[in-house]
Write a structure and sequence with these properties.
Blueprint lengths: L15 E9 L5 E10 L6 E12 L5 E9 L2 E8 L2
Antiparallel strand pairs: 1-2, 2-3, 3-4, 4-5
């Protein structure tokens, strides 16, 4: 039996932004991320895209960062030495 929708229900035709999340721990690790829910062709379709980064200082004093995108094509990290 098909699901019944409320009379005021409308299919999503625009992306929905997910608020930015950000925090830093007491030992200097920081993380930020934000995302977007994208509508699909049908009412049960769609995808989630998340972008973010994590940074930290290593014991040798160097600072590193991993930035990433995670979406319907997979997880795509980029690693770099910041300083």
């Amino acid at each position: 039996m098909p699901r019944q929708r409320p009379s005021n229900w409308r299919a999503r035709t625009q992306a929905i932004n997910i608020p930015l999340r950000s925090y830093e721990t007491s030992n200097g690790i920081s993380r930020t991320e934000t995302g977007e829910v994208k509508p699909g062709a049908g009412e049960e379709d769609g995808s989630l895209s998340v972008q973010g980064s994590t940074s930290w200082s290593a014991p040798d004093g160097k600072k590193y960062e991993i930035s990433f995108t995670a979406d319907e094509t997979g997880y795509h990290p980029k690693f770099r030495l910041v300083a």
